[in-house]
Write a structure and sequence with these properties.
By secondary structure, the protein is α+β, with helices and mostly antiparallel strands. Among the domains are: about 35 residues, no CATH class; about 130 residues, RRM (RNA recognition motif) domain (Alpha-Beta Plaits). It contains seven helices and ten strands. Strand 6 and strand 7 form a beta hairpin. The chain is elongated, with a radius of gyration of 44 Å.
Length: about 270
């Protein structure tokens, strides 16, 4: 037991608790005060460099500051911090439908122009044959041969322009004015969740790794010419398009996650 000027302390027990007894004289009497105290030792690791900086001598205007003033001291920062506006991720459904309609209209226009050029060359070749004197018998044989090919006779080579079920005409089912256009729809993908900064060249580099591209259409705002967040990718064959879906659907691109799916065929 320790004694110090009317104060007595016992040794701490196994739980770290000790008794402190004090005798106090007050109003002509002596009072005994007993306290239970528990000692707790806390270990705190410090950095020598931090402690050295804290012990540095103050200078300049800071030398006259008190500890209370330093707790509320604020310094004005002159650093310029650029703040970027949040990118638009959500796509307006009405705008998406307009852009989709524009994509299919342009595809149909391109197909029609190619068919017109093909028809011009066909008519020109026909006129040249007439001028060199193709007989009526040869023309009749050619017509009969074309009819035989259109009917799908076995053992005969049928060119693509004459393939199809019987009764679909000389150009076959699905051909003619919209035949090549329907083939484009079979290998067309629709890509969602693109950033505003994406360009058609970026999509060509990305999707061109999966196969030969026929066309890339990126929906853009008519005023800012920025991306609306979606695009259409057309391949020459459906296998390459499927490969692009397997590889790029859910792929992270420009801090966003792309969604790639088949484009809905136009009726």
């Amino acid at each position: 037991m320790q004694e110090a000027q009317g104060r007595f302390e016992t040794q701490a027990d196994k739980d770290g608790i000790k008794s402190v007894v004090e005798y106090v004289e007050k109003n002509g009497g002596t009072y005994k005060i007993t306290k239970k105290v528990k000692e707790v030792v806390t270990t705190k690791w410090t950095n020598d460099a931090i402690q050295a900086r804290k012990s540095l001598e103050k200078f300049g205007k800071a030398a006259t500051n008190s500890e209370a003033d330093e707790k509320t001291l604020c310094m004005r920062s002159v650093e310029e911090i650029p703040v970027e506006s949040a990118k638009k991720i959500h796509v307006d459904l009405s705008q998406k439908d307009d852009a989709e309609e524009k994509f299919f209209e342009e595809s149909l226009t391109i197909t029609e122009s190619l068919l017109k050029e093909k028809k011009v060359w066909t008519d020109l070749n026909k006129e040249m044959k007439d001028q060199v004197g193709v007989g009526e018998e040869e023309k009749k044989d050619s017509t009969e041969a074309a009819a035989t090919l259109a009917s799908g006779a076995p053992g005969k080579y049928v060119p693509p322009s004459l393939r199809g079920a019987q009764g679909d005409g000389a150009k076959g089912k699905g051909k003619g004015k919209g035949g090549d256009y329907s083939g484009q729809q079979d290998a067309t993908l629709r890509v969602f969740n693109l950033s505003d900064d994406v360009k058609e060249g970026d999509l060509q580099d990305l999707f061109g790794q999966c196969g030969r591209l026929q066309r890339v259409f990126l929906a853009k705002d008519m005023t800012t010419y920025q991306s609306k967040g979606f695009a259409f990718i057309t391949y020459y064959n459906r296998e390459d398009a499927q490969r692009a879906i397997d590889r790029l659907n859910g792929h992270g691109y420009d801090n966003l996650i792309m969604k790639v799916e088949w484009a809905k065929p136009r009726a």
